[in-house]
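Final report, section 2: Outcomes. Of the targets proposed, Germin-like protein is the one most frequently requested by collaborating groups, and we therefore present its record in full.
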Amino acid sequence: MDVNAEDFFFSGLNKPGNTNNRLGSNVTAVDVNKIAGLNTLGISLALIDFAPYGLNRPHTHPRATEVLTVIEGTLHVGFVTSNPQNRLIFKVLNAGDVFVFPEGLIHFQFNRGHKNAVAIAGLSSQNPGVITVANAVFGSNPKIDESILAKAFQVDKKVIDYLQSQFWMDNNN
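The predicted structure is given below as tokens.
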């Protein structure tokens, strides 16, 4: 009785996202947090805008498979299979091409072109979640002990200190 059309509506995907940032990309998520009517329906979507050479850096969706469709431009996309193979599966996509990123696998999209690119992603969850690898590992709060990361990545602690000192921005809106 309390449901109305606004519970099933979102406006604004016709406006380009702000790609004026260090990554050169912007993700506009349209999930249950933006459309209450998606609750329990098992779907959501995202619009991803890319400046030239913009990156949607390596990330994972712990609760969803993603189907990406390139609307404009050219994207280099890929995902890494799980251990022990850790095999990179990648493709260069043009407008109209579709690529699937299986649930939970680390994946990325990169605009290889000199012009803007736009993609839309369908996700198999109303709340897919996003874990950006660099943010999670080097930007956690509190920080993961540098000796743990130095051993895990087999690098000097100074490298870890440098990485942890960086600003790990989030391009997801």
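Residues 157-165 form the longest helix (9 residues).
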